[in-house]
Amino acid sequence: MYGAYGHTAQFVVAALRRRDVALVLSGRDAGRLHALAAHHPGTRVRPAALDSPADLDRALDGVVAVVNCAGPFGDTPPALVDAALRAGAHYLDVAGETLVAWRMFDGPEPPAGVLVAPALGFFGALGDLLATAAYGSGPPAGAVTVAVALDGWVPTRGSRLAGKLRAGRRVVFTGGRLHLRSGDTPPPTATWTFPPPFGAQEAETEFPTADVVTIARHLPTQEIPTYLYTAPTATEDDTNAHRRSEQRFVVEVAIHRGGHEHRVSASGRDIYAFSAAMAAEATTRVLQGNVKATGLVTAGQAFAAADFLRTLPLDHLNLS
Q1: DSSP symbol at 32
Q2: Which of 70, 101, 156, 278 has the greatest number of beta carbons closer than 10 A?
Q3: Average pLDDT of 254-262?
Q4: pLDDT at 154
Q5: What is the pLDDT of residue 235?
Q6: CA separation for the pair 110, 268 (Å, rounded)
């Protein structure tokens, strides 16, 4: 676990400990690592700086998989992926930044039998899994829409920093290709009718979720529209507490094919804790060899999507 003391990472650590996974806690701050290890007896602490290949090689000695929870993800994956490949270990992360995902999936394939799975967080894997489960075996879809509704959002420090680095830039998939929109103009808006309790809402379109990149990688389509609605009343600011917040979310995916629309959806609580649940489930399956594919893969490519979704702590799952 790299960046093991971060907000989302602590949820992942706790989840993997409950599954009896042997953990090495790593990151740049030795003091915070030892403080975390005190709450998880039996874990090992191996501090490592990202700019020191020797540190990373010592940290990854003997590990089977690396889970990267250290942001900003524009900076941390390259060194950790390289170190994981040197160690012959699988690599997973919880990044949700579209630009980072685009760059990652444009990279070289890892050696045979090694899995590199970026973007396993809320903004990257949930929409991809829903779309994979719903897509079916028909002809290529004309469009795959991803719509996200939150009843409030208090971003963590990492999320705020990622937004600042993005500077309003948006990755969109249209005409069968990924495009980068500059941050010079605000994103357009449109109405989307979400499942209850949200209903019809004016939402930001062209929302830069990594699902755009992951879905485009393996599901044939010409368009991937995205919608984000965030209620104006934010949830309590408890993102620094090691407990789930009361934030509620709904993610809906619509497959548009041949004049018909097939919608699936999932709802739950706390996008950061939910990211951790997905990362823990993915890591467990990788350690058990319970994967459909290795290589440079999305969640939908690596795992049986419907089965994976049914293991997650969702309030409601509609795969219809």
Answers
A1: H
A2: 101
A3: 95
A4: 77
A5: 46
A6: 34
Encoded amino acid at 139, one letter: P
> Two tokens at 141?
């879809």
E-strand spans in the chain?
Answer: 24-25, 44-45, 65-68, 90-93, 115-117, 141-150, 170-174, 177-181, 189-193, 200-205, 221-223, 226-230, 248-257, 260-269, 295-296, 316-318
Q: Which domains does the chain have, with CATH numbers?
A: 7-121+275-306 (3.40.50.720), 122-270+308-318 (3.30.360)
Q: How confident is residue 186, by pLDDT bands cut at 50, 70 and 90? A: confident
Considering only residues 52 and 157, tell me which one the structure prediction assigns the higher pLDDT: 52
Whether residue 243 is predicted with pLDDT greater than 80 in this model: the reply is: no
- Average pLDDT of the residues in 43-65: 97
Compute the CA torsion angle 251, 278, 270, 307 (nearest 10 deg): 50
User: Residue written as tokens 């992926």?
Assistant: 81
Burial class (CB in 10 A: 0-12, 13-18, 19+), 182: exposed
Mean pLDDT within 267-287:
97
Torsion of CA 268, 274, 278, 280, to 10 degrees: -130
**pLDDT for res 236:** 47
| Other CB atoms within 10 Å distance of the CB of residue 157 | 13
Distances (CA, A) of 246 to 22, 37, 60, 269: 30, 27, 36, 6
- Return the pLDDT at 144: 98
- Beta bridge partners of residue 209, listed in sequence order: 97
8 A C-beta contact, residue 262 and residue 133: no
